[in-house]
Amino acid sequence: MKKVIEGSMAVALAVKACRPHVISAYPITPQTHIVENLSQMVADGELKSEFVNVESEFSAASVILGASATGARAYSTTTAQGLLLMTEVLFNIAGLRLPVSLTCANRAISAPINIWCDHQDAMTVRDSGWIQLYAEDCQEAADMQLQAFKIGENPEIMLPVMVNMDGFILTHAFEPIELLDQKMADEYLPPYKPEIFLTTKNPVTFGILAEPQYYAESRYRLEEAIKASKPVIEEAASEFKRIFGRYSGGLVDKYKLDGAKTALVGMGSVVGTMREVVDEMNSHGQKSGLLKIRTYRPFPKEAIYDALKDVDNIIVMEKAISLGLGGILLNELKSIFQGKKKQPRISGFIIGLGGRDIPTQSIINAVKKVESETIEDEFIDLRTELIGAGK
Amino acid sequence: MSRPYTDKQRRIMLKEIRIHGRGGQGVVTAAELLAVAAFEDGKYAQAFPSFGSERMGAPVQAFVRIADHKVHNRSQIYQPDYLIIQDNTLIGAIDVLSGLKPDGMVLVDTEKSPEELGLKTSAEVRTIPATRIALETIGRAVQNTTLMGAFAGITGLISVEAIIKSVKERFPGEIGEKNARAIQKAYDMMKGGKRA
Question: What is the ipTM for the molecules in this complex?
Answer without folding.
Answer: 0.94
